[in-house]
Amino acid sequence: MGFNENNYMLIIRLTRRGRRNDPSFRLVVTERGNPIRGKFLEGLGFYNPKLKTKSFDKERILYWLGQGAKTSATVHNMLVDEGIISGSKVKTWRPKKKEGGEIVSSQEAVKTEAIQQSGNKEVEKINEAAKEESRTEETVVGQENISEK
Fold first, then answer.
1. Looking only at Cα atoms, what is the longest distance across the chain?
2. DSSP element (H, E) containing 46
3. Ranges of each domain in the chain
4. For the segment 116-137, what is each residue's pLDDT rounded down to a tens digit?
5. Residues 70, 30, 66, 8: is their CA dihedral positive or negative?
6. Any idea which architecture 10-82 has in CATH?
């Protein structure tokens, strides 16, 4: 009864446990398509962000990585911190992009989405006024720095 890696796409990821406002996570090996709180093949450790405690079974993690399992970005970074695997850390999130391909912050994305949904001219005027205000603050700060020198 061996493991056939051709049939499965395995991932080592965190699954949330604990109660409301008291998170704790288990490190598990599961198929990529399984729900996050769903069944898993094996538990490999735990992580409690409130108490800042973590425990990983290094031997089993290396076994599953040898069998072709991939890690989520967060788990990869945790394993690099613990020295279980070598390499550099991976970026764990991607900023949202505008339609033109520019990167925007989440606040700007929410504002533009609200404008598109409502089509309200008042909202656009408020956003334009806020942008102008921030521009004037930047120029005032820039002028203060010049006058100090």
1. 77
2. strand 42-48
3. 10-82, 106-148
4. 555 555 655 666 766 666 665 5
5. negative
6. 2-Layer Sandwich (3.30)
